[in-house]
Amino acid sequence: MDCLFCKMVNRDIEPDIVYEDDHVLAFNDINPQAPTHVLIIPKKHIATLNDIEAGDLALVGRLQYTAAHLARDLGFAEDGYRVVMNCNDHGGQSVYHVHMHLMGGRRFTWPAG
Ligand code: 5GP
Ligand code: ZN
């Protein structure tokens, strides 16, 4: 399977890792949109949010849990941060392996563009 983020999980491409455990990998985004911009991915290949199944619920919860812990470790949990998951074309998804964007270190506006 020709998936960029699976290649990072398998270390065919070496990501700039921020956190890793048996189920998730977190690494710095190559094109950061904030002072800190980390992508948190499941090691299991799931193409989009639409493909999440009942058996993946703990894994999806782990993405959010990891984001909150990283925000604390990186020092912006109290100031606040933005978490985003884009789905398909209208959502702006460009890599088809589910990922959570964790961005911090600046103030974000709402609504998103
Ligand atoms: P999406 O647009 O699918 O929600 O987010 C994909 C993200 O992956 C983008 O923020 C983009 O900058 C990031 N990205 C794309 N290619 C690479 C890469 O080769 N390395 C890293 N670290 N991030 C990447
Ligand atoms: Zn993948």
Q: What share of the residues lie within helices? A: 10-25%
Overall 3D form: globular
Number of strands: 5
Low-confidence stretches: none
What name does CATH use for the topology?
Answer: HIT family, subunit A
Number of helices: 3
Look at the helices and sheets and give the structural class: alpha+beta
Strand content range: 15-25%
How would you name the oligomeric state of the polypeptide chains in this document?
single chain
CATH class: Alpha Beta
Largest sheet: 5 strands, antiparallel
Q: Identify every distinct bound molecule in the structure, by name, code or SMILES.
A: guanosine-5'-monophosphate, zinc ion
Give the H and E element order.
HEEEHEHE
Tell me the layout of helices and strands:
Blueprint: H1 4-9, E1 17-20, E2 24-28, E3 36-42, H2 57-74, E4 81-84, H3 88-91, E5 100-104
The protein binds guanosine-5'-monophosphate and zinc ion.
Guanosine-5'-monophosphate binds at residues 4, 15, 27-31, 39, 86, 92-95.
